[in-house]
Specification:
The protein has eight helices and no strands. It is mainly α.
Length: 251
């Protein structure tokens, strides 16, 4: 049992006491849907708040109005993610709160990008939902089979991408150098973003496999919330990478 998702690891499901109902795949998917709805609600509220303030006082005032929600959601979301990761029993409370915090973050980022590329956010949301549905269908119909070789390949490739991003962040923080194809909109940059979007989609399949294995082991019912939270982590990454890809294509 191995996933590249940093919060969806085998140890999270190991030696859990079961005293009542068991975790199910369908229950986890239903809770994931609820978390997505909560994220859309808070993201939509952040968006509307910007529109209202910007319409009354200008774009700069609108940006200033949503900045506290963006940074506050980022900090609160990180804290809640850590709490959920190390205290899975609380996931029924912390996972919905995490989804709402991430909604504020994604809403703030989305409105900024949409100002530059109108309509891009709706495209990214629809593509993310489509990729999620397609990956779930492919996994449940066993068109994509998670073998050891498949798992190792996706994990290794995702680890390489994560390391590349960390190097880029370090270079940009301490020097004026950046890795060009991560940010530029040429053919190489778009190809790189397509690769990363594909890897994020394949990580969803690994997450589904991990959750299904946990249900087979008889994990307790509250772990459905934990599994939904873990899927949210991958979906946030997928959405951001789709936004990056679409923005490169627009440029």
């Amino acid at each position: 049992m191995r996933s590249r998702n940093p919060v969806l690891q085998e140890k999270a499901f190991r030696d859990l006491p079961v005293t009542g109902e068991r975790m199910t795949m369908n229950g986890t998917i239903a809770r994931t849907g609820l978390l997505l709805v909560l994220a859309l609600i808070t993201g939509g509220w952040t968006w509307q708040h910007f529109i209202q303030v910007a319409g009354e006082s200008g774009l700069q005032a609108g940006m200033a109005a949503i900045t506290p929600y963006l940074w506050g959601g980022l900090i609160v979301g990180f804290v809640l993610a850590m709490v959920t990761t190390f205290a899975s029993r609380w996931s029924g409370v912390t996972a919905p709160m995490y989804a709402m915090a991430e909604g504020c973050v994604l809403g703030g980022i989305s409105v900024v990008i949409n100002l530059r590329y109108p309509g891009i956010v709706l495209q990214a949301v629809m593509l993310t939902a489509g990729v999620l549905a397609a990956m779930l269908l492919l996994y449940r119909s066993r068109i994509i089979k998670v073998t050891d070789r498949f798992r190792m390949g996706v994990v290794a490739a995702t680890g390489g991408i994560a390391l590349l991003y960390l190097v880029d962040i370090g270079l940009r923080a301490f020097t004026s150098i950046q890795i060009p194809f991560i940010h530029e909109s040429g053919a190489l940059g778009i190809g790189f973003s397509l690769l990363v979007v594909g890897l994020a989609a394949l990580n969803l399949v690994l997450d589904f496999d991990m959750i299904e294995r946990a249900t087979e082991q008889g994990a307790p019912k509250y772990m459905e919330w934990y599994g939904a939270f873990a899927l949210m982590v991958t979906l946030v990454w997928l959405y951001m990478e789709i936004l990056r890809l679409l923005s490169k294509a627009r440029r």
